[in-house]
């Protein structure tokens, strides 16, 4: 979220990350992060957040107006079903105190030693002496009467949203204070999580705002503000995990559905290695360990795209954006999103910040009383481009526009009156069903870059994304803010081998048949063409020009789910510590090494399927079948062994059929419960277990 005191820190930290040696190639091949597994956000979340248009002084009435507008104007029906109140909703002290907590000169909460004396906290010590519950600011969120009982203003809004078929979200932080100086949840996780659940909160945006002085390491390195006290001894990973577990405990106790958690950690914060606790879970996390931690950074901080999906459903992977389209183009959040595809799968999504599509200048009349570059509203072309980039990357679609009527969203200042309400044309763009279907596609496979990275900030970008029904989505993006461009993508570059494909351009609705290439029409400045090409995704060969399924030969490990099993994943039975020769089975999707499989093509057109285990017990064993019907088990690779070879085909819906070469039988499962053995059975189109879906 936007907060002026830390803008410089963000710039410095991004520079430090670039200098750390974390190249696109290095992070792009990291092991996919395991899903949080709370059953939420199986497609990217959609909704609205109050910050971009209303800021820190959002009121109960403004949120009600937004809920009413979204329900009355088709946004809820389109999928934008969550309304979230951002920072500034609570009083500046908990109910255990009668006055606001003391702050240091740096805006941090004043911490104290065991004797009650103030301390700096820069050594990781110091106590937060506040206690009690968070309270909604009564002037902004007055109490209301619902069904004969008095509820606070936040609880009332949750009830109101639920009555309109919507979910309600609330803001908190993993630090002592929020970005706007209100009480944070660090050290109060159980209390706050229990309160949120009792109030009816369905979604939490969990921010990271560590105020404090510049902290110097033992070697004299300046870490810039990284916080104080416990903020320095526990990683963002650990602090978020603590709150997430508190939410799960609260919902279990209340008998309510689990709460969706959105982590908004900033890349400015890298931690201080010398102060991180020895028992911090980030130190031993296998994904973080495999990716490595650059010098002058602590594990469990940046980059969140490596590990965040294990503790949250939505994961900020970049800094704050404003209404400059560059922030979401290749030199901004797009390039970062392309580096972390492993964090994208059902239950875990890379968050590219709130959208500015349809946002209007809240600071003045643009071009008259306000000329700040970061306040200029998007053109409709720019709104289409932002929405296209986010949908291609399977990112959450959270609007920051003012979703209220023109009358409700009026402002008056300096003798001018203007409305920040979304225009009818921008509203229609948000509701474009074809764009939303790309974003929400069940295959959950984000786009990849076609060709080389752009040679300049204004050079075109082409993205492609394989879809669950076998279609291919292609975005042709004009990054030039001033000039139109004619952009096309050849079939060879897209990995297409057919002579022609039917297409639909999703913004104009134009249809046709493409031969040899797609596009080739003029695209406006900062504009986009977004195509859905029928049947072109099933045989893209991962962009290599091959005609087989995309998972074959792409050099990546993938998780697979058998049909009819509720999303359970194929795994090495017993995990990577099991001895060679054990069976495969299915289990709840965690996407650890034992649930990850690489499809390596053989010269004869068959495929070898190997796991990602690399332990003392076994190392990259291969899936094998027996002489007949029986279990599919794991063996060390034997060149030329037909029972270790498979034929992999993909239908028009993207599902895989995996057939053993040695016995001619099809990979199936013995049942639908966790622990059911992987089997080879006679081919049966009616058997759901013979249809395998790529999870990551």
Summarize the structure.
One of its GO terms (biological process) is carbohydrate metabolic process. The protein is α+β, with helices and mostly antiparallel strands.
Structural account:
By secondary structure, the protein is of the alpha+beta class. The chain is built from 16 helices and 37 strands. It has three domains: 46-412 and 425-440, Alpha-Beta Barrel (TIM Barrel); 448-533, Sandwich (Immunoglobulin-like); 557-695, Trefoil (Acidic Fibroblast Growth Factor, subunit A). 19% of the residues lie in helices and 22% in strands. The strands form 13 sheets. An eight-stranded parallel β-sheet has the order 13-12-11-8-7-2-1-14. Strands 17-18-19-24-21-22 form a six-stranded antiparallel β-sheet, with helices on one face. Helix 7 packs across helix 9 (236-254), helix 13 (380-392) packs parallel to helix 14 and helix 13 runs parallel beside helix 15. The longest helix has 19 residues, at 236-254. Strand 18 and strand 19 (472-477) form a beta hairpin.
**Helix fraction bin:** 10-25%
- Report strand order across the widest sheet: 13-12-11-8-7-2-1-14
Alpha plus pi helix count:
16
Tally of structural domains: 3
Mean pLDDT: 91
Q: Oligomeric status of the shown chains?
A: single chain
What structural class do helix, strand and pairing data support? alpha+beta
CATH architecture label of the largest domain? Alpha-Beta Barrel
Number of strands: 37
What's the main sheet like? 8 strands, parallel
Rg (C-alpha, Å): 26 Å
Distance between the termini: 29 Å
What overall form do the CA principal axes indicate?
globular
At CATH level 3, the topology of the largest domain is TIM Barrel
CATH superfamily of the largest domain: Aldolase class I
Q: Any idea of the CATH class of the largest domain?
A: Alpha Beta
